[in-house]
Write a structure and sequence with these properties.
Layout (H helix, E strand, L loop, with lengths): L2 H5 L13 H16 L2 H19 L24 H23 L3 H17 L10 H9 L3 H16 L23 E6 L3 E6 L5 E3 L3 E4 L17 H7 L4 E6 L11 H19 L4 E6 H16 L6 E7 L11 H4 L3 H14 L1 E2 L1 H11 L1 H14 L8 H7 L4 E2 H13 L9 E2 L2 E2 L9 E6 L7 H5 L9 E6 L3 H5 L9 E5 L6 H6 L2 E4 L3 H11 L3 E3 L13 E2 L8
Parallel strand pairs: 4-5, 4-6, 6-7, 7-12, 12-13
Antiparallel strand pairs: 1-2, 1-17, 2-5, 3-16, 8-9, 10-11, 13-14, 14-15
Helix pairs in contact: 2-5, 3-4, 4-5, 7-14, 9-10, 12-16
Length: about 550
């Protein structure tokens, strides 16, 4: 599986902003209404479509699929025969519907929403999604004497019974947390109702005196940072001589509906203090990614407002957006005020925002990669879903308590983090400009979830010395970026002008992973070392459970 295809399937904070399938249906109805009241526009494009069909029938059409469209790679689609005409007919219909939508008169975000709705319909009816329209599926059925179709039917029945009717994206039986994922030695040294704090066993005789405190997103589980040994950020940091502590969030139930952003911030504040006490150092490097970065930045803004930021040595924000806009993702196009309030009411009624619900919505945001791709492979080809660690992690969804979901919606809707004092925690106004510790911010060149330009905006919000690094990869591949990949490179620039494109134009290209650059940046803040601790915790923080802890299994 390619790196790009993996990144296209990653679920992050985006689905919590309020989009539902009902919102998509409303947009679809709007497109249809506009089409009905302008029949002459539809008739004109229908005539053009029929003319193109005539050219296709007589072999005079020059239409061809995009070479990068994986649906039409079978030789039959380029042989000039029946399947070439089938593909050309579908492409003609796709082009006609897009032109029709543009001619109706939609503008701006309305036009983008309409295009997206039309693409859902055209992609659903692509010939490759059906047995007779998919030459590779027919060939496989012939070669296996129908066995592939039998296996595909079994896969379908399994998904109806066990996967909410959605095609499985990963073979979950291939992985087990604590056995072949999240295996780095460590121990839970602090636990409250919201988090477990995991301390990892040092891998070097000497360690940096300043510990690292990593905050994952609440909508996924923490072990993204400790997947297989060769991909583990935790192991890399340990082998680089760092002391590593990681937060593992509890998976809340309806009974925890009242937990809000303030509760999560207070829990982080306590965990930071416990980390400092165990490491016997007065400061800690703090690290957050995705939605975890939103929570962490809010926490640091709260600490700054309380004049308590001195315990933070540095801040790292990875693939994280603190100043969101509707243009950042397809999801944002549908996050109207009405949609956001509907989502808020639903989670308030249920007590939680369920990860399975957000995953289903996200799947429909990228149906070719997340639905139809697996319909073809699982059902038409009869193949088992892939065994891939990142996809297993991505499908190991969690819930958000209703109040935290509501708080996230406010941040997205009102852009409160970017406005001085608009967000308050227990009466303390949050001002990101008061976060004056050194900050390291990352983005990915092909990240479609948190676009690198959106990540770059944070350089203008924080008050300390900023280092921005841009990795040549997508959302997850830029984050989980171990050294050793010869294709890897990243851009760096000590200056952070307001214009991100100006930053890139003046940036230096560096070979390899940004991880070593990041560790060196931390050492420049504090290079002092000490003998590595030989036990977990201390007398006040006894070992409560072996890593990966208990909350990760909920």
């Amino acid at each position: 599986m390619s790196e790009q295809s993996v990144d296209e399937q990653i679920l992050t904070l985006n689905p919590v902003v309020g989009v539902s399938l009902e919102d998509l249906l409303k947009s679809a109805m709007k497109v249809l209404r506009e089409g009905v009241v302008q029949p002459t526009v539809a008739a004109q494009h229908l005539l053009e479509f029929n003319a193109e069909l005539a050219r296709i029938l007589f072999g005079a059409s020059d239409m061809s699929p995009n070479p990068r469209d994986r649906r039409f790679t079978a030789d039959a689609f380029s042989s000039g025969g029946l399947y070439t005409r089938v593909a050309q007919s579908w492409l003609a219909w796709q082009r006609t519907t897009n032109q029709w939508v543009e001619a109706i008169g939609f503008e701006g975000e309305d036009l983008e929403r309409a295009k997206f709705i039309v693409s859902l319909a055209t992609d659903a009816l692509a010939p490759t999604n059906f047995l007779l329209g998919n030459p590779s599926a027919l060939q496989r059925a012939y070669e296996t004497r129908g066995a592939s179709l039998v296996k595909g039917l079994k896969n379908l029945v399994h998904d109806i019974r066990h996967n909410h009717g959605m095609p499985s994206q990963v073979d979950k039986s291939a992985f087990a947390v604590g056995k072949n994922l999240a295996t780095t030695p460590g121990a839970v040294v602090y636990r409250d109702d919201i988090i477990e704090l995991i301390q990892y066993q040092p891998a070097t005789d000497e360690v940096n005196v300043c510990p690292m405190f990593i905050v994952p997103a609440q909508i996924n589980k923490f072990y993204l940072y400790d997947l297989s040994p060769e991909k583990s950020m935790v192991r890399f940091l340990l082998e680089s001589g760092m002391q590593v502590f990681v937060v593992s969030w509890r998976n809340p139930g309806p009974e925890h509906r009242s937990w809000g952003l303030a509760d999560y911030i207070h829990s982080l504040d306590r965990a930071i203090d416990h980390t400092r006490a165990i490491a016997e150092f007065d400061k800690t490097h703090v690290v957050g990614a995705c939605a975890g970065g939103i929570t962490l930045a809010s926490a640091l803004g709260y600490l700054a407002g309380r004049s308590d930021l001195a315990k933070v040595a540095s801040l790292t924000l990875m693939v994280n957006v603190l100043q969101p806009t509707s243009e950042d993702s397809v999801m944002g196009l549908f996050a109207s005020d009405e949609a956001i309030e509907t989502a808020r009411k639903k989670s308030a009624r249920d007590g939680v925002l369920d990860g399975n619900d957000t995953a289903r919505v996200f799947n429909w945001m990228r149906p070719n990669d997340l639905i139809w791709n697996y319909v073809v492979s699982n059902y038409l080809h009869g193949e088992p879903p892939p065994a891939f660690d990142i996809l297993y992690w991505n499908n190991d969804t969690t819930r958000l308590p209703a109040q935290l979901h509501s708080d996230f919606l406010d941040i997205f809707k009102d852009n409160t983090l970017a406005k001085q004092g608009a967000l308050q925690i227990d009466g303390v106004p949050v001002d990101l400009a008061k976060i004056d510790c050194p900050a390291y911010i990352t983005g990915g060149t092909t990240d479609h979830i948190t676009p690198w330009q959106a990540c770059y905006r944070s350089t203008q919000l924080l008050g300390g010395e900023i280092t921005y690094v841009l990795s040549t990869a997508g959302h997850i591949q830029s984050l989980i970026n171990p050294p050793g990949n010869s294709k890897r490179k990243f851009f760096s620039n000590p200056e952070t002008p307001p214009d991100c494109e100006q930053w890139l134009a003046q940036a230096e290209e560096n070979p390899g992973s940004w991880w070593p650059h990041w560790v060196e940046w931390q050492r420049n803040i504090n290079a002092e070392t000490k003998p590595a601790p030989t036990a977990f915790g201390d007398s006040d923080h006894p070992e409560l459970a072996a890593a990966p802890g208990t909350y990760v299994h909920e």
